[in-house]
Amino acid sequence: MKPRTLAALAVTATLAVVPSQASAAKAKKVTLIGSGSVAAQPYFLSLFKAYRTEHPNVRFVYTANGGNVGVKDVQQGKSQFAGQARTPLPSDAGTTYVKGFLDGMVVATNPANKLTSIGLPQLKDIYSGVATNWSSVAGSGLTSTISAFGRDSNGGQYQFFNTAVLGGAAPASRVTPFLSDGLVANAVAKDQAAIGYHGLAWVTKKERVLKINGIAPSAKTIGNQTYPLTRFIFFVLPTTNPNKNVQKFVDWVRTSAAAGKVLTKSGAVPAFNKKK
Amino acid sequence: MVSVAPHHEERPPRWSDRRVGILLGALVCGVLVVIAGMLVVVLHRAWPSFQHNGLAWFGPGGDVDEQIRQISLSGQSGTKDSDFTWTFHAWPLIWSTILITGGAVVIAFVTSLFVAVFAVEFAPPRMRAVLDPLIRLLASVPSVVYGLIGVLVITPFIGNHLISEGQKASVAFQIPLTGFSLLAAVLILTVMIAPLMIAIFSEGLRSVPQTWLEGSLALGVNRWRTFWKIAVRTARPALVAGTVLATARALGEAVMLAMVSGSVGFAPNPLDGLLFFVEPSRPLAATIISNSEDLSNPPMSSTLFAIASVLLVSAALLSLAGHLAKQPMKKYGVRS
């Protein structure tokens, strides 16, 4: 009984596999190796998945070891591409940065807070420890001590926030660092006096998203880069002899309508993709 | 007629004792080599950090988070050894580790002992049937789950109900009092390690020879006194073993503590009174987690490996201390 069942299974399996093998045999199997930005990893994973449905012969290996390390990996030839969330530095010699898509950082407070908009200088005061009480932030309607939440130095959002808001300085010691964007969002929802920053994809209904300098974060304002806390996620390729298949993938991410849909769904904002 | 002996009787058994002995021995030696290799690698990579700081590595001085930042920055911009910053004074992290681990182990020890005594001697059989598997289940829950309970329930409660607005304002320029605190860390760590202790304590208490207890009961001594004076005393080696294991787990706990301890390189000060319990800190293991992305950065990696080696050596010393403490108890003690 058992061997017969097995044999039957084997036959069906072969029958099912044969056609797909035949079509896959046309294109050679390829593995693309990347590393870098942790902030970009969730976007990349959805992009990889979508790309594989169109090109089943391509496999991806992506190690989220931080943008700076990813660029070093590309310089040393360990990775074929890197994900990076900051603009190029002189130390990135030998690599080419390609703008992939846009990512917005959201600043949010607890719904108990009446504040609707905040300016970058005010935000800087809060995170550098100058303003410690909500009474010094007009419009908040609170008089409690500010609970400022942020990311630990592992997070791509941490570097982005420090550069964009604090002018490159580190946040004050009174800012509580968290392991992930999701934990920041959770802490903001639980503490009435809280303010926190995280990626657009992590916004929940239990927090109030603030306008920055009067502009609310949305696909539109991030897409046309009027929202101040907007950044590009870059693909970093070696300047000489970049891998053809990687280039093909990057072009697909940048231009195809399919990739645009995937990006929107995962919380990023497409920059150059065709609408349809 | 020639009778042919069955084939298998002629051949020696495939897994002879000798062969098994050699194979298992080789396997164990292999494990020992791996452990020794790990020690060498960790200490080798940690060495530059100790070399540049000397004994001051363990001492207080400056803001440890700022030091970590400078080390990280120097590693990103520099390329050779002389470019790097090394200054690192780990005292706030060590102090936090001592406080959190110590606090949790002390509380867990007392409660676990009483729970184990109850479970072994006083619980009705039906309750015991539920209690034992439950404790085993709790002992195997991954620490992240405890961390989640911490950030969803414990820290918001502490932040919203146990800390007054005045207290928050009084230290607003230095540290955050948001519920992510020593208290939360100790509480959750206690819940995490207590089941492990209870399980080992119970095993020890159960293996006390019944006749010893019966002798005492026959003399008219009541159950509580008998159990406390004879069973618990005899099971002392098991108490030590359980405590050592639980302490080792507490020392190495990283993810959960990074989630609830507040993650600030601050040394909670007992002179602050009640505020002490709600002050944030960050133990050694959590520091490795929060900076793990910098592992490929030479000075930072060395600093992180130095932290790891301190944890490794403390775990080894702990184990040794446990072994030494057990020696005088062995005479009448049960094995564990």
List keywords for this structure.
heterodimer; A: 276 residues; alpha/beta; nine-stranded mixed β-sheet; two-stranded parallel ribbon; 9 helices; 11 strands; B: 336 residues; mainly alpha; MetI-like fold; 69% helix; globular
Instruction: Supply the number of structural domains of chain B.
Output: 1
Helix amount of chain B: 55-70%
Supply the CATH superfamily name of chain B: MetI-like
Poorly predicted regions of chain A are: 5-25
Radius of gyration of chain A: 22 Å
- Helices of chain B, by number, come to 14
Mean pLDDT of chain A: 86
* Rg of chain B, alpha carbons: 26 Å
Structural class based on helices, strands and sheet pairing of chain B: mainly alpha
Reading the helices and strands of chain B in chain order gives HHHHHHHHHHHHHH
> Termini of chain A, distance in Å?
54 Å
Distance between the termini of chain B: 60 Å
**From the helix content, strand content and strand pairing of chain A, which structural class follows?**
alpha/beta
Q: Provide the helix percentage of chain A.
A: 25-40%
Shape descriptor of chain A? elongated
Q: In brief, what are we looking at here?
A:
Chain A is an alpha/beta fold. In chain A, 36% of the residues lie in helices and 22% in strands.
Written description of the protein model:
The complex is a heterodimer of chains A (276) and B (336). Chain A is of the alpha/beta class. Chain A has helices spanning 2-24, 41-54, 67-75, 120-127, 156-164, 181-190, 219-223, 244-255, 257-266; strands spanning 30-36, 58-63, 81-84, 95-109, 117-118, 147-151, 176-178, 194-199, 208-209, 211-212, 230-238. In chain A, strands 1, 2, 3, 4, 6, 7, 8, 9 and 11 form a 9-stranded mixed β-sheet that branches. Chain A has a two-stranded parallel ribbon with strand order 5-10. In chain A, strand 6, helix 5 and strand 7 (176-178) form a beta-alpha-beta unit. The longest helix of chain A is centred in the N-terminal third of the chain and has 23 residues, at 2-24. The model of chain A is unreliable at 5-25 (pLDDT under 50). Chain B has 336 residues and is mainly α. Helix content of chain B is 69%, strand content 0%. Chain B has one domain (17-77, 86-332): MetI-like fold (Orthogonal Bundle), CATH 1.10.3720.10. In chain B, helix 2 (17-53) crosses helix 14 and helix 4 packs antiparallel against helix 11. Chain B contains 14 helices and no strands. The radius of gyration of chain B is 26 Å and the shape is globular. The chains are: A alpha/beta (276), B mainly alpha (336). The interface between A and B is large, with 35 and 44 residues.
